[in-house]
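Note to self: keep these together.
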Amino acid sequence: MSRGSDAIPTWSGFNYQGKIMLFDILKLMNQINKEEDGRIYSVNLEEIEDFCILCDSEYVSFHQVKAWLSVTKWSSYSAAMDKLLKHRNGSLNPTAKCYLIVARAIDDWDECSNTYNASIEFYKHDSKIVGICDVKDLIIEEIKKFLVEKGYDENQFEIVYGELCLFLDDRIALMHKQALRKGTISYCFPTF
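Structure:
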């Protein structure tokens, strides 16, 4: 049955993209070594790729996010992966990591016909695809880790989660209001 002009798939896709970005940032914040305190990490949303992570203003990773639920073959993502590699190779750090993040497993990713798998990492968390319905719980898990590590009450996770989602929503609304086709949400995240 066709969804017609139903906005749910698009809306869900953009929500997934934003939440995957939040999850990846929180995971990185929890992994940053305290000895790297002087380094500045930031993230750009929709500047070059769906999102990019930078360290001291240098790209360290490029992320292409697709929430397609009906696609299970690597070849369906070839145009997106071509752009991903082009953007990475055109950056000042052509050795930065590239990630393809999908909401449903790609059945033939490891086939020898897939030449992309030598340059692009198929994003998984704990050896699993991060599905559309999984990402919120993973964000909350990372928020709790962060709060405990910093000595805060982990039961405040709902407030932090809500504030992060509001921040992202406000920045996207501002980009939309300013009619930016490609904009940047660039902010630094703490290493304290």
